[in-house]
Design brief:
Anticodon-bd, ligase, elongated, BirA Bifunctional Protein, domain 2, about 575 residues, alpha+beta, nucleotide-binding, Histidine--tRNA ligase
Length: about 575
Amino acid sequence: MDGLQTPRGTKDILPQEQPYVDLVINSFRSVVESLGFQKIDTPTFEYRSVFVRSVGNESDIVEKELYQVQRLAGAEGSGSEAGRESTREPLVLRPEGTSAVARAYLEHGMQTWPQPVKLYYISSMFRYDRPQKGRYREHHQLGLELFGELGPHADATIMLAYWQFLSRIQLTDSIVFQVNSLGDETCRPRYRKKLKLYLESQRQHLCADCQRRLATNPLRVLDCKVESCREIASQAPVIIDELCLDCKNHLTTLLEYLDALKISYQLNPHLVRGLDYYRRTVFEVIDAYDAANQASISGGGRYDGLIKLLGGKDTPAVGTGIGIERIIDKLIERGIKPPVDTRPAISVIALGDKARIGALQVINQLAGTPYRLNFAFSKDSLKAQLKAAARERSMQAIIIGSRELFDQTVILRDMTTSLQHTVALAKLNQELVDRLLNYDPSQAPVAPIDPDDLAANPENPDNLLDPLTATTADAMSSAEERSPVETSRDSQSSSVSVSPEITSSESVSRFSIIFVNISRLTNTPRATVKLPLILAFHRSRQSPNISRRSNTKGIWIAKTIWLAQSN
């Protein structure tokens, strides 16, 4: 099975799961675009130095989680271009979005654009991590980045956008923002010294990674996931006690904004983020319903020094990343379902190879219209295709036979009432608009309709315009379904296998009434009288005076044939 399944830590997103993805992405896009954010896409792979310089060489991302892009031997090309490629630094798959967007901000001179620059992205991220629920080695992320605004109102804007997005998908009732400040270059060094002294006293209880990080970046110890380190971190000094006046004012003002916006939050003085570029505000989003695990759905914060780390000038910035898979998990846990597709379904039915040409023309004509088109041309019989249409809950069926193809018409069948009539192809779009003007999704057929037992349909108790007798396309299908012997015998006795004039609306209506009357008079199932009545109708059509023939004459002919066959 190797090679025929998804790699560990990845998953296929199947068609039945796509409505959740669409709900999340469409809700996010709608909210952030209304707040002035513009979409940006960055390459799936970047130079490794982008992340070394931004998230830090000591971070888990750089040390343990990067996927390096391996150039295959012989794939570099030739000549000087190959030489340049072979000497350049390694390429890695994008592990997080902020660094890539910051690189693009710097590379394309966005500092010269009107500030602030507000960007969003919807991208795949790749991290070599232990797979678990909601955490994949390839995951999909929504992201917001705001460059060029220093004040706490920029932080509040990002959190407001996030909150509005959660509100749009009905998740705000248990969501809490946990907020902290990591200080800046003024107050953080003082805290680092105090923290390092405490951690040195607990060195023997720290994991090997944290013992090593003590010398380079002791704040990274506070973000360790090892249980013994988490216990030590919970007793560590908190940075909020060491904040300078500017950082305290920034945090206080942000919390006032959150109060005014009625955004649920908690001040968590132990909160840090695992990336080195954060300054001042950091936050994580927690589900209160899952408080026992304290699992973060996502997070973000301010990274005023990131652009400078990448080679630019000091630029204030704040952002967030939101895992799509984790959001979908929360929707499913709460029983929140995505909206169903309410577009009216229309089935296109072709009878015979030639008719498929016309069916494809119809599909081309209706492509891009507000309908959901269904077609199953591999099914030959009308009955099978009508059943397929009913299973798809189609409101209308467009039936095409050879005659319709020649006349540039279609048979338009209402799948709820079973009534149908011929429509010129040029007028099909308007006819569908008229029929579906007051479309109600709850009225769509919920069970397959058996074309041999349409009398069971309460919307059509008289079975008017029975599908196997009322149209050219249907008559063709009926002839195709009979054996060659039966077809030959019918041709010899009636001289007509399929009458071109059978689609006359006046004759069809009269013929349908005769069909119903015979069934009632003889107390015979309609399927039993169907074939003899077809023959009677074809024979009567040979007379030019058919329009003056009475129902009685038709009944007498069909009943005589039926009695003869019965005996």
